[in-house]
Amino acid sequence: MKMAQENRYPIGITGQQWGEAEKALWLTKQTIKRSYQAEVAAKIAPLAEHFQVEQYGALSYHPSEYPLFVVKSRQWSEDKPTVLVTGGVHGYETSGVQGAIRFLETKAKAYEDRFNILVAPCVSPWGYETINRWNPNALDPNRSFYRDSPAEESAALMAYIADLGIDITVHIDLHETTDTDNSAFRPALAARDAVEHSNWNIPDGFYLVGNTELPAEAFQTAIIESVEKVTHIAPADDVGKLIGVALSQFGVINYATKALGLCIGFSDSIYATTTEVYPDSPKVDDENCILAQVAAITAGLDYILPLS
To answer: Which residues contact 209 (CB under 8 A, 6 or more apart)?
Structure first.
């Protein structure tokens, strides 16, 4: 019987999980494609004029090149609810990083009186530079937010938040869904884990991922309605799903975020969502994607304002 191996992933043996040799081979194929220092760190530094900029760690892969930053509001008070915005958990998802920075540059000051604002613009700077979903150890930081995490990107952020000793009321994690999810990352995942991952339909438009345990449906609705004024919302596919998951409402699906080790799961926020921008749509450009991320953040905060 002829076995269909034409589409076999170029690393590893079909049916066998990757070991250290395969992961090391994968790493040799990754290259620097853009600059974290020039495109991210250089934009964070001037924010110190209006905010408190702190370095909470550095990636061991190259500590001087990959410092990790958070930006905090100066008017910090235990009487205010705290909002956490995270970007670049998947480093390749550009508008998540640039959207977090743009929010700080243009909108964050207007919310300082009512919120403690805490922004980690780029959780995975190596992933940003190499345009990767994984870190150099072939680990997905957005599946690694749990106790004793093996992904240092995830572990560093969790440790910093834990040291603050605060409750996070709102957590908005900025992401993208790209065509490369099917063409590059899902095939790599299937090969690494020796499991089958059939491709899903890439949603054409913006959508949200909420928490199955705390869906905060009205909060999600408010964000969708605001972002819809900036960019188009992804319709469900032919079977009523987005990325294989049934809709909870228009433009929204829910995941078991803590069980899956997602970033919005670790903060235990009452109001938590993951944004998903579609940058490969012919209907958008880079600026539109950034503005959609900013609109998502501000809509979430505007929803909370009367409740806080």
So the answer is: 175, 252, 253, 254, 255, 257, 262, 264, 273, 274, 276
Structure tokens at 109: 């000051």
Q: Which of 122, 176, 115, 69 is nearest to 298 (CA)?
A: 115
SS3 at position 94: helix
Per this entry, what is the length of the chain?
308
Instruction: Give the pLDDT of residue 5.
Output: 37
What is the token pair recorded at 85? 């915005």
Q: At 221, phi and psi to the nearest 5?
A: -60, -45
Domains and CATH numbers, the chain: 20-307 (3.40.630.10)
Is pTM beyond 0.85? Reply is yes
Active-site residue list: 276
Question: How far, CA to CA in Å, does 289 sit from each of 121, 161, 296?
Answer: 15, 28, 11
